[in-house]
Sequence to fold (152 residues):
Amino acid sequence: MSAKYWWEDFKVGEVSEMGRRTVTKSEVIAFAQQFDPQSFHVDEAAATQSMYGGLIASGWHTVAMVMRMMCDNYLLDSASLGSPGVDHVKWLKPVRPGDTIRAMRTVLESRRSASKPDVGIVKTLWEVFNQNDERVMTMEGYGMFKVRGAAS
Fold:
């Protein structure tokens, strides 16, 4: 396997920016129409009357955008074996059309799998900020990566 990042490359305490993305009204509505069609995600008039005062992205849309940033920043160039799950997702502030979000990755823990020694497990905190440097989302979860040289 030709990969740039292996389990050993994720060092505890390491912080890195994963990119930026400007959120458009059309993608907010399109995502929500398919996956989360609550009125404040799909109907501008209704959203104006909601507690949010306007259209907002689904939290799941924000998670999906961050997943894309993860893929583009490191996952597609890694010896990734997927993920056993996410422990915490918190939506702290609404993401609105026109916002530019950026995501940061912090490695919290790293250990070798007890049952599969050729697999390393990395616990990560992902933080998402808007253009005003307000934290809009946090997420903690795990990634599994091949250990360098452990498998042919």
Remarks:
- Residues 112 and 120 are 4 Å apart (CA to CA).
